[in-house]
UniProtKB/TrEMBL annotation:
Locations listed in the record: Cell membrane
GO CC terms in record: plasma membrane
PROSITE patterns, alphabetized: SSD
Name of the protein in question: SSD domain-containing protein
Length: 732
């Protein structure tokens, strides 16, 4: 007996099942407070979208460690009057700045500067604070106030931006018509966090409601609908507690995006694992009088498939740990942990609860003992008959349809810029647009250039005076800590700081800093700066450079993660099926459905939803979820085929497996698609796109790949499916 089956059998015991239930309840209760703490840690996304080892991440680290000034996070207040800023508007900006200084509501405030005065903050020894010319638009319709704070943690930024918005005029305007927008890096971060505020609660509510409806429609029993959800909830709480432990000891990090996808993945995959056991348990109750006997039989037939399917998803998620992009890398271990815990709960807690409830779990549609009789002709019986009769035609038609959809995505789409990241533009986006229209566009998010002081002038000249340079303005904002002292660590090394003196320059681009054009300019600017620095330190960071480094990292991660993930899945399938041929074409069909989802999704986004730009993370996320979960659910069909092959030749085994599992596997696919569709209720365009494409791919996989294409190919290949295994069926 395999270990997963043994665990399920123990969970069905008369006494041991109560121990299992008590242990899970105790673990969940202990994890409840830790789940809240995990949410608090996920709120800080200051490092989430950086790339480890990248130039922009190194620049940020140096700025944070070596500069008193320059390491601050900036909130930019854009005061706008279409008819032109008045003297009263200037006095209002100064008054707002003083009020903010005195309020004490901004954590770690270092300076507030307006075009007319510095309201608070220490005097910079190099007098590098923004001057009036940098804070007033050429057409005199906009003035800027800059609020600098040293802490870039997301909760503190949220608090600061909220305090600013309580004092300055609203974006709609005050009684005089003066409008104010809070933007800059702090404004962007606060608005992104606000868009995700309550995301986990929303997802939980929507997901549970959708799943409860689907389960009620499937089983027409309130208890059997609630039990899988209760099992998943307990597993999720335990996962959240353990995940917080991993984060607390520094083994990984977590973001709001990760916790959102964790909910969707655990509720979708977890409910499906439960569905397979519930369906098989119901079937066994029709054959066996004893409830424990029925559960043991159900476990023996489903636990190996669930364990293998879970192993595929866990492996695929762990492969994400190889990524350089922080948001991708940190997601892998936590999602893998969630699926592993869910498999454990499905194979232990669910059998314990179902055995305790017995036949009552299915009330009012209680399964009764039924004599063996010829099964009635069902919908899936007719589908299986069609597949058996015309496998070549079905395989060709489905392949052609999926390939045509995949070809629609050739050429790709441009990347989403910041203003397109929200379903509805928040204050920071509108403020950035005001700055773009009335200032140098790059003023809202300047490049941050760290350069050795002795070549600072050369680098500045090279970047601003070229014939086609995208840099419109560049000015020094800070120099490294301790002008008359040693650099950090210099005393220990017995050397004085000389050539290690560093400057920070802010460089404003001529184009929208969140556009793809600005991102494309980064490698050229780095090359020019390196030539001018002539071997001295020069690093280009800031939001624009971080976007470029993230794009490059995603391309590198894709080239690594895709082949490693596919190889891992192939190995698991080959071990499960003891064959090579079937795993190869199963993976190929799932990749085809992935291409179909991306291609058709691209057409719908561009021509129907009016969103031609794409989130750069979309292909990678879609690949991981569609391939891992697509293969995952094919395992349930393939394991039943392998089971039936012990009595019949392969062609008959395929059609019998499809007839007997078509309903439950299709229900499982619909449940999973429905849970990913809940991401579409969120206000972030990236999560909407991920939810849409993964849902589309799962539906294609459920109704085309698993129901038609894989069975048709299996029928066509017959015994060759199992090469190199020489096992033959025992005729039945």
């Amino acid at each position: 007996m395999r270990p997963p089956t043994r665990a399920s059998v123990i969970s069905a015991g008369r006494r041991s099942r109560w121990v299992v239930i008590a242990v899970w309840l105790a673990l969940a209760m202990l994890a409840v407070p830790l789940q809240a703490r995990l949410g608090e840690r996920a709120a800080d996304e200051s490092e989430t979208f950086l790339v480890r080892g990248s130039e922009s991440a190194t620049a940020k680290q140096i700025i944070d460690e070596r500069f008193r000034r320059g390491s601050e996070t900036a909130a930019v207040i854009a005061y706008f009057r279409e008819s032109g800023i008045t003297a009263d508007d200037g006095r209002r900006a100064d008054a707002d700045a003083l009020a903010l200084c005195r309020s004490g509501a901004i954590p770690n405030l270092t300076m507030i500067a307006t075009p007319y005065q510095r309201a608070c903050g220490e005097t910079d020894p190099l007098d590098m604070s923004p001057g009036a010319s940098l804070l007033t638009s050429p057409d005199d319709t906009v003035i800027l106030s800059t609020v600098l704070m040293t802490d870039d943690s997301t909760p503190d930024i949220e608090q600061a931006v909220a305090a600013i918005r309580d004092i300055v005029p609203s974006a709609a305007g005050d009684e005089s018509g003066l409008r104010a927008f809070v933007t800059g890096r702090a404004g962007f971060e606060a608005d992104r966090k606000a868009a995700l505020e309550g995301i986990n609660g929303t997802l939980l509510a929507v997901t549970i409601a959708v799943l409860l409806l689907l389960l009620l429609l499937t089983y027409r029993s309130p208890l059997v609908a609630l039990v899988p959800l209760a099992v998943v909830v307990l597993a999720y709480l335990v996962t959240a507690g353990l995940a917080y432990g991993l984060v607390a000891v520094g083994l990984t990090e977590v973001s709001g995006q990760t916790t959102a996808i964790l909910i969707v993945l655990m509720f979708g995959a977890g409910t499906d694992y439960c569905l397979l056991i519930v369906a098989r348990f119901r079937d066994e109750l029709r054959r066996a009088r004893d409830v424990e006997e029925a559960m043991v039989a159900a476990a023996q037939r489903t636990a190996p498939a669930i364990f293998s399917a879970g192993a595929i998803v866990v492996g695929a998620m762990l492969v994400l740990a190889l990524a350089d992009f922080n948001a991708m890398r940190e997601m892998g271990p936590i999602l893998a942990l969630g699926v592993a815990i869910m498999v454990c709960a499905g194979l232990t807690l669910l059998p314990a609860v179902l055995t305790t409830l017995g036949r009552r779990a299915f009330w009012p549609a209680v399964p009764r003992l039924e004599p063996e009789s010829a099964p009635a002709v069902t919908f899936w019986g007719r589908v299986a008959g069609l597949v058996h009769a015309r496998p070549g035609v079905i395989a060709a038609a489905v392949t052609a349809l999926l390939a045509a959809g995949a070809l629609a995505g050739i050429g790709g789409r441009p990347a989403l810029d910041f203003s397109e990241s929200f379903r509805e533009a928040p204050d920071s986006v509108r403020g950035q647009q005001v700055i773009r229209d009335h200032f140098i566009p790059g003023r809202a998010a300047p490049l941050r250039i760290v350069v050795a002081q002795e070549v600072g002038g050369k680098v500045q000249s090279a970047l601003t005076q070229g014939p086609h340079t995208p840099v419109a303005d560049m000015h020094a904002v800070a120099r490294s800590v301790g002008a008359d002292g040693d650099s950090p660590g210099a005393e220990a090394q017995g050397q004085r700081r000389s050539a290690t003196d560093l400057l920070i320059f802010d460089a404003d681009l001529r184009m929208d800093p969140f556009s793809e054009q600005a991102t494309d300019a980064v490698p050229v600017l780095r090359e020019v700066a390196e030539r001018a620095a002539d071997g001295h330190t020069v690093l280009i960071g800031g939001t624009v450079a971080e976007n470029y480094d993230a794009r490059q990292a995603l391309e590198r991660d894709t080239r690594l993660i895709v082949p490693v993930g596919l190889a891992l899945i192939l190995v698991v399938l080959a071990v499960l099926l003891r064959a090579v041929v079937m795993p190869l074409y199963v993976i190929a069909t799932v990749i085809l459905s992935f291409g179909f989802a991306l291609g058709v999704g691209s057409l719908i986004f561009t021509h129907i939803l009016g969103q031609p730009a794409s989130d750069p993370n979309l292909p990678m996320y879609a690949f991981i979820f569609l391939v891992a979960l697509g293969v995952d659910y094919n395992v349930f069909l393939l394991s039943r085929i392998s089971e039936r092959r012990r009595q019949h030749e392969t062609r008959r085994a395929v059609t019998e497996a499809l007839e007997r599992t078509g309903g439950v596997i299709t229900s499982a696919g619909l449940v999973l698609a429905a849970t990913f569709a809940t991401l579409m209720v969120l206000p972030m365009e990236a999560l909407f796109q991920i939810g849409f494409v993964v849902t589309l791919g799962l539906l294609a996989d459920t109704f085309l790949v698993r129901a038609l294409l894989v069975p048709a190919l299996a029928v066509m290949l017959g015994e060759r499916n199992w090469w190199p295994s020489r096992q033959t069926a025992t005729p039945g």
